[in-house]
Design a protein that fits this description.
Belongs to the short-chain dehydrogenases/reductases (SDR) family. 47% of the residues lie in helices and 15% in strands. The protein is of the alpha/beta class. The structure holds NADP nicotinamide-adenine-dinucleotide phosphate (NAP).
Length: 247
């Protein structure tokens, strides 16, 4: 028996990286998982196949969560199929790194829309059934760089800091319905997002991590599952999973 047997979960950005690991870990613990992706259908299908090979159920949910209509329709599709949503993991995210002197309006707006506004769209859609159920677990993936400065990431840092602030207010407002809202804040994690950082910069970053290595997507997923399965009295909080890179 998994720790989340029979629970229904949606993970945004679950075709790759951290979202993929979260979807797999939730399925391993017994969840029926909605696997959201934007472009990479083939990879999302691989995640779905892996979930099915565990004997678990899942649903592919193509949607651009940065679009409010698509984000809300995605949650609706899952509810039409299963009638319940217990766990919403807002994980989808992008970077458009540039120093402020070079950052365009588009760089700024795309990152805020995808990383922050989408969390609002998906949370407000997911909370409706959770209020009716008087139960819900909303877990938002922020970042160490929402807490500390990173060169070239004014847009990303603002979006991730915004997630932390949003989470606290959502936790306050939704507590009376049995809904908890928390953040997992990864440090540098081995995914496609990190691979965009030049190798030389990666080496400099690694040298500053007290535990001496980058995080694994599975290590972020464990924190998410902890909050979903064992975090009944935890709300409005954040778990930093960063190897000590920011204390
Ligand atoms: P990743 O490997 O680049 O994967 C990003 C995922 O998000 C993909 O599944 C992608 O879907 C999806 N996505 C992007 N835009 C989307 C949209 N508009 N609608 C729906 N899905 C969308 O990223 P990652 O490293 O796993 O990061 C996951 C989360 O962790 C992000 O919020 C990121 O900011 C955060 N984080 C990452 C690190 C790190 O070092 N990797 C550190 C701290 C925080 P497609 O495959 O279809 O494009």
């Amino acid at each position: 028996m998994g720790r989340l047997e029979g629970k229904y979960a949606i993970v945004t950005g679950a075709s790759r990286g951290i979202g993929r690991a979260i979807a797999l870990e939730l399925a391993r613990e017994g969840c029926i998982v909605g696997v959201n992706y934007q472009h990479n259908q083939a990879l999302a299908e691989e995640v779905a196949a892996e979930i099915k090979s565990m004997g678990r159920e899942c649903m592919l949910l193509q949607a651009n969560v940065a679009d409010p209509t698509e984000a809300r329709a995605m949650v609706r599709r899952f509810l039409d199929a299963y009638g319940r949503l217990d766990i919403m993991v807002n994980n989808a995210g992008i970077t458009r790194d540039r120093s402020l002197r070079k950052m365009t309006d588009e760089d700024w707006l795309q990152v805020i829309q995808t990383n922050l506004n989408a969390v609002f769209f998906c949370t407000t859609a997911a909370m409706q059934p959770m209020i009716e159920q008087q139960y819900g677990r909303i877990i938002n993936i922020s970042s160490m760089n929402g807490q500390t400065a990173a060169f070239g990431q004014a847009n990303y840092g603002a979006s991730k800091g915004g997630i932390i602030a949003f989470t606290k207010t959502a936790a306050l407002e939704l507590a009376k319905y049995g809904i908890t809202v928390n953040v997992v804040a990864p440090g540098f994690t081995l995914t496609d997002m990190l691979s965009k950082v030049p190798e030389e910069v990666q080496n400099q970053i690694k040298a500053r991590i007290p535990l001496g290595r980058f995080g694994l997507p599975e290590e972020m997923a464990k924190a998410v599952v902890f909050l979903a399965a064992d975090g009944d009295y935890i709300t409005g909080q954040q778990i930093n999973v960063n190897g000590g890179a920011y204390m």
